[in-house]
Amino acid sequence: MSPEKPRKSKVSSPPRSASSADRHYEHDGRIEYLDRKLAEFGIRIKDADSQKVTGEVFDEVTLLALYKLVNKKIISSMGGSISTGKEANVFLAGKTDENGEEISAAVKIYRLRTGNFTTMSEYILGDPRFAGIRRTHKDIIFAWTKKEYSNLSRTKEAGIPCPTPYAFDRNILVMEFLGEGNIPYPQMRQCLPGTPAEAYEETIGLIRDLYQKARLVHGDLSEYNILTGPDGLILIDMAQAVTPEHPRAYNFLFRDIKNINRFFANKCKTTDEHELFRNIVGEEFFEI
């Protein structure tokens, strides 16, 4: 009888660190969980738009912020896409007003993966209202969302036409939907209120009021981010707006004036940019 071979003792292997596949599975699991929680409120994200947009926009951080807004009863339903911009997607949504009636709202979601960090930083880091924020990609986008909410509130309080801001969380801004039915109001480039000369004077008046009453400079004004409503022109896309204390505020203001003059140049008589600039800022610029 041959002797038994000695048995190899079993050595326990070290605990396996989570692989990228495991982490991906956990990440997907959290997203599915948040999607189910939102579905309990009747909100189906996957119905909001195409699968591509869903993947780009509704990541875990965004779904969590959306869940909080739904849980606070700021959003009651979610619809399809209104617009897709360089940094954000805007969706139609439902909101319950103070009378318990369903009204339309706009949900603006700044994309965490594709947001233009460099451009946002230029407007935020020189703004004294946002001094001391961390300079990570995510923190800049969160500050950008808060900044648009703050700028809209300030503009509205000054009596200047803009969407009413309702709430924000992380990279999501909920505001008034500007349109009839489910159709947004047209951009100024598509539809002028009255004659070109009247529209030009109204636009210059908005720039002046924004600076003198709200103490803001839009910073990216053009025919694309002014809407034509039934009562006149409405300013939108206010995230980049800065106070006069921003080191580049006057450069931004002059650029806004030039953009508007360029648009109206072949439509009506325009006023010299330098003259408009002096009329808007008064003696302030020359006292600095």
UniProtKB/TrEMBL annotation:
Keyword entries, A-Z: ATP-binding, Kinase, Magnesium, Metal-binding, Nucleotide-binding, Serine/threonine-protein kinase, Transferase
GO MF: ATP binding; metal ion binding; protein serine kinase activity; protein serine/threonine kinase activity
Record-linked SMART domains: RIO
Region (Disordered), start-end ranges: 1-25
E.C. number: 2.7.11.1
Record-linked InterPro entries: Kinase-like_dom_sf, RIO-type_Ser/Thr_kinase, RIO_dom, RIO_kinase, RIO_kinase_CS
Biased composition (Low complexity): 11-20
Keyword presence, Acetylation: no
Family classification: Belongs to the protein kinase superfamily. RIO-type Ser/Thr kinase family.
Protein name: non-specific serine/threonine protein kinase
Domain (RIO kinase): residue spans on this chain: 47-282
Top EC class of this enzyme: transferase
Keyword Kinase: yes
Xref: Pfam families: RIO1
Reaction equation(s) it catalyzes: L-threonyl-[protein] + ATP = O-phospho-L-threonyl-[protein] + ADP + H(+); L-seryl-[protein] + ATP = O-phospho-L-seryl-[protein] + ADP + H(+)
